[in-house]
Amino acid sequence: MTPYTCNACNATNSSVLSKPALIICRQCRAVVHRDEQLKMFELDLARVPDDWSFVRIGTEFSYNNNTLTVVGRIRFQLRNDYKNFWCAALRDGAYIWIMESFASFCILGSTWKEFKQSSEKLRAGQLITLEGNLKIRGEYVEKCEEVTFEGELGLMKFPEASFFFIQCSNNQNQTAVFFIKPSYDIEYLEGGKIDVEKLNLKNTVTWDEWK
């Protein structure tokens, strides 16, 4: 853990990731650290809006015999849905992404892969062949209309809105998510869907809709 002080409000905190791409002060929401690859983007530092997620920064979960801790979030507001990309830190400072919306979860790696085929292949219902002969089918295509951030984050290729988000899966729950923006190379993350019960979540938001 690397300590840091926010230049805007002098709050002290610590960085968990070995190579964070973005750190936003939890107290005043100023940018404490920004990777060189993100400096060309205008970041929307508006507070992340409320949604129905019960995950939060500090939530712990178990995956592949590891305990991981959520240290940050990117929230993509899609036209008819939302996707939270929770950045989850491993003990060695590496990270993975937990993609979540309405209690549906996917575990995604942190390695971005280039999609070398035409974007015309990326359609709902279309069968797509990826690296390693992985065959998946397009589930849906949504336009992203807003992106908000909080906490400490690994590198996300498209921190701005106005791109198309595409999710594809197969019957073995293997999943890939694509980000398409004009003039950018098409890149994707691979992973798989997972039942929430298998994550053994701890330190979550407790909802009581009767109050």
Q: Which parts are unreliable, with pLDDT below 50 for 5 consecutive residues or more?
A: none
Q: Work out the helix count.
A: 0
Order of adjacent strands in the largest pleated sheet: 6-7-8-9-15-14-13-12
Sheet with most strands? 8 strands, antiparallel, barrel
**What structural category arises from helix and sheet content?**
mainly beta
Broad shape:
globular
Mean pLDDT: 91
The rounded distance between the terminal residues' Cα atoms is: 38 Å
| SS strand fraction | over 45%
Keywords:
211 residues, mainly beta, two-stranded antiparallel sheet, 15 strands
Summarize the structure.
This protein has 211 residues and is an all-beta fold. The chain has strands spanning 2-5, 12-15, 22-24, 31-34, 60-63, 66-78, 82-89, 95-101, 104-108, 113-114, 127-130, 134-153, 164-169, 174-180, 187-194. It has an eight-stranded antiparallel beta barrel.
Give structural notes:
With 211 residues, the protein is mainly beta. Helix content is 0%, strand content 47%. The strands form 2 sheets. It has an 8-stranded antiparallel beta barrel with strand order 6-7-8-9-15-14-13-12. A two-stranded antiparallel ribbon has the order 1-2. A hairpin with a 6-residue loop joins strand 1 and strand 2 (12-15). The radius of gyration is 17 Å and the shape is globular.
Detail the topology: elements first, then pairings.
Layout: E1 2-5, E2 12-15, E3 22-24, E4 31-34, E5 60-63, E6 66-78, E7 82-89, E8 95-101, E9 104-108, E10 113-114, E11 127-130, E12 134-153, E13 164-169, E14 174-180, E15 187-194
Antiparallel strand pairs: 1-2, 3-4, 3-12, 5-6, 6-7, 6-12, 7-8, 8-9, 9-15, 10-15, 11-12, 12-13, 13-14, 14-15
